[in-house]
Amino acid sequence: AQKITQTQPGMFVQEKEAVTLDCTYDTSDPSYGLFWYKQPSSGEMIFLIYQGSYDQQNATEGRYSLNFQKARKSANLVISASQLGDSAMYFCAMRDNRDDKIIFGKGTRLHILP
Amino acid sequence: GAGVSQTPSNKVTEKGKYVELRCDPISGHTALYWYRQSLGQGPEFLIYFQGTGAADDSGLPNDRFFAVRPEGSVSTLKIQRTERGDSAVYLCASSQGLAGVTSTDTQYFGPGTRLTVL
């Protein structure tokens, strides 16, 4: 069965520092996609970055990058040069080719300190 | 362009009442999804539409929950005989519905409807 695990319920990081949010996943399907979403206090889920299981390179989108380690089934999100506006809940999610729904982890609440 | 919109943003109802939650997807997106998010949890899948038909309704918790998308655009999630346990944020998402490459089909979410059942 599909599963997403985020082991960090909360993190505090100093502004301008880099932060890594952990995510491990489990699926038996060789074709799948991994997503990270940001949910600020307003509640909207904001798509950040996508990594396909067959992608040869780690995905990057501006200050966001995904550290994809396929053998370890790990898809950590790295935020460089953190900003106060990065404070939010972050969800790791997965979708495979057997299914159309996204499975979400429980999330990590990130606090950026001034 | 316009994103996914959901109305109402907040809904307070009494136990036993009927409610309807509306979702307007991104124009041109054929796939539409409903999720439910309880406090402190990640969203949980409810139902998925491809066009007008429900392709997967395995996440609907029971037969009090029903959703329609009659013209393949706007969708309505309907909850009958609401219970206090139905209180949550109901999120709608849409995607292009890319055939054959479903794992790359990024879903974009609306702001959600916060449902409170008293």
Describe this structure in words.
The complex is a heterodimer of chains A (114) and B (118). Chain A has 114 residues and is mainly β. In chain A, the strands form three sheets. In chain A, strands 2, 5, 6, 10, 11 and 12 form a six-stranded mixed beta sheet that branches. Chain A has a four-stranded antiparallel beta sheet with strand order 3-9-8-7, with no helix packed on it. A two-stranded antiparallel sheet of chain A has the order 1-4. The mean pLDDT of chain A is 93. Chain A contains no helices and twelve strands. Chain A has strands spanning 3-5, 10-14, 19-21, 24-26, 32-39, 46-52, 60-61, 64-69, 74-79, 88-96, 103-104, 108-113. Chain A is 0% helix and 53% strand. Chain B is 0% helix and 47% strand. Chain B contains no helices and eleven strands. Chain B has strands at residues 5-7, 10-13, 19-24, 31-37, 44-50, 53-56, 65-68, 75-79, 88-95, 108-109, 113-117. In chain B, a hairpin with a 6-residue loop joins strand 7 and strand 8 (75-79). In chain B, the strands form two sheets. In chain B, strands 2, 4, 5, 6, 9, 10 and 11 form a seven-stranded mixed beta sheet that branches. Chain B has a four-stranded antiparallel beta sheet with strand order 1-3-8-7, with no helix packed on it. The mean pLDDT of chain B is 92. Chain B is globular and about 40 Å long. Chain B is an all-beta fold and 118 residues long. The A-B interface holds A 4, 31-33, 35, 37, 42-47, 50, 52-53, 91, 93, 95-97, 99-107 and B 31, 33, 40-45, 48, 50, 55-56, 59, 89, 91, 93, 102-112, 114.
Protein chains sharing the most extensive interface: A-B, 29 and 28 residues
Spatial gap, N to C terminus of chain A: 41 Å
Tally of strands of chain A: 12
Low-confidence stretches of chain B: none
Largest sheet of chain A: 6 strands, mixed
Q: Mind telling me the C-alpha Rg of chain B?
A: 14 Å
The percent range for helix content of chain A is under 10%
Shape of chain B: globular
Question: Please, what is the average pLDDT of chain B?
Answer: 92
What characterizes the major β-sheet of chain B?
Answer: 7 strands, mixed
Helix and strand run of chain A: EEEEEEEEEEEE
